[in-house]
């Protein structure tokens, strides 16, 4: 029986685990353990880190893994780099599964930036006062030092304390609706959205609401995948590769 390691707790990772387990493959899903009460995939689940590429390489060998699918979040660059290095060391084949990024429409007002730091710098040059921040709790320190703005920071889990007085944390988990996002923007009188190009439908409603309300969007581009690794964007293609 083939043994497949799936890295990540994304919706794509869960769907892939279900597909492979249903086909008789032994699947081990690895979750980073950073989210409280994550949605668990079918099959064996491993939580916590491996200890970098050295630890992952050793684990792949000890567990006799036949192939690895990196289905982590598009911004999990460190884990993706570790997976690529461990694959190169052990010879265990690696595939990257990434959902497509979001695409701007003619009615959108996006400003693409390469990093969170550049997103924060852009805010200082814009005539905005109330920011809708959806870049994750770990990114809050990049923005919390900004003066003259109020932040509505939405995340699944609470950020590390202390949280500045001008930051309001909203704990919530998708999927979100356009109606709900529109109401949230109007209720808090938000005038700009800052987000990462995560892609997918689960959190895309905020972009539609921003478009309808004429809000500018600062979009942080996703990091590139590791060089030399095949990348696919559908679960079906990833499942066929893993089973073959």
Element order: H for helix, E for strand: EHEEHEHEEHEHEEHEHEEH
How many strands in all?
Answer: 12
Helix content: 25-40%
Name the strands of the widest sheet in spatial order: 3-2-1-4-5-12
Distance N terminus to C terminus?
12 Å
Mean pLDDT: 94
Low-confidence stretches: none
Radius of gyration based on Cα positions: 19 Å
**Percent range for β-strand residues:** 15-25%
The main pleated sheet reads as: 6 strands, parallel
Secondary structure tally, helices: 8
- Estimate the global geometry from the Cα principal axes: elongated
Essential attributes:
244 residues; alpha/beta; 23% strand; elongated
SSE blueprint:
Elements: E1 3-7, H1 11-22, E2 26-31, E3 44-47, H2 52-62, E4 67-70, H3 77-90, E5 94-97, E6 110-113, H4 116-124, E7 130-134, H5 140-144, E8 150-155, E9 167-171, H6 178-187, E10 192-196, H7 205-213, E11 217-220, E12 230-232, H8 235-243
Parallel strand pairs: 1-2, 1-4, 2-3, 4-5, 5-12, 6-11, 7-8, 7-10, 8-9, 10-11
Helix pairs in contact: 1-8, 2-3, 6-7
Write structural notes for this entry.
The longest helix has 14 residues, at 77-90. This protein has helices at residues 11-22, 52-62, 77-90, 116-124, 140-144, 178-187, 205-213, 235-243; strands spanning 3-7, 26-31, 44-47, 67-70, 94-97, 110-113, 130-134, 150-155, 167-171, 192-196, 217-220, 230-232. The protein has 8 helices and 12 strands. Strands 3-2-1-4-5-12 form a 6-stranded parallel sheet, sandwiched between helices. The chain has a 6-stranded parallel sheet with strand order 6-11-10-7-8-9, with helices on both faces.
Write a concise synopsis of the structure shown.
This protein is α/β, with parallel strands linked by helices. It has helices at residues 11-22, 52-62, 77-90, 116-124, 140-144, 178-187, 205-213, 235-243; strands at 3-7, 26-31, 44-47, 67-70, 94-97, 110-113, 130-134, 150-155, 167-171, 192-196, 217-220, 230-232.
């Amino acid at each position: 029986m083939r043994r497949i390691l799936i890295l990540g707790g994304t919706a794509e990772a869960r769907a892939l685990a279900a597909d492979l387990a249903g086909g008789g493959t032994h699947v081990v899903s690895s979750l980073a353990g950073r989210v409280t009460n994550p949605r668990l995939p079918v099959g064996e689940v491993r939580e916590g880190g491996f200890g970098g590429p050295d630890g992952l390489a050793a684990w792949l060998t000890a567990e006799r893994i036949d192939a690895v699918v990196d289905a982590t979040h598009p911004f999990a660059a460190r884990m993706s780099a570790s997976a690529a290095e461990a694959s190169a060391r052990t010879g265990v084949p690696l595939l990257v599964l990434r959902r497509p990024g979001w695409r701007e429409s003619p009615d959108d007002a996006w400003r693409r930036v390469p990093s969170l730091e550049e997103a924060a710098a852009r805010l200082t040059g814009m005539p905005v006062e109330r920011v809708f921040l959806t870049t994750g709790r770990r990114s809050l320190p990049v923005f919390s030092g900004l003066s003259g703005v109020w932040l509505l920071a939405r995340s699944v889990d609470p950020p590390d304390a202390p949280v500045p007085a001008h930051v309001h944390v909203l704990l919530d988990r998708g999927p979100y609706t356009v109606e709900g996002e529109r109401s949230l923007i109007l209720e808090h009188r938000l005038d700009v959205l800052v987000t990462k190009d995560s892609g997918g439908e689960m959190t895309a409603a905020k972009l539609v609401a921003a478009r309808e309300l004429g809000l500018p969007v600062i979009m942080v581009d996703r990091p590139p995948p590791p060089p030399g690794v095949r990348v696919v964007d559908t679960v079906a293609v990833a499942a066929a590769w893993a089973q073959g």
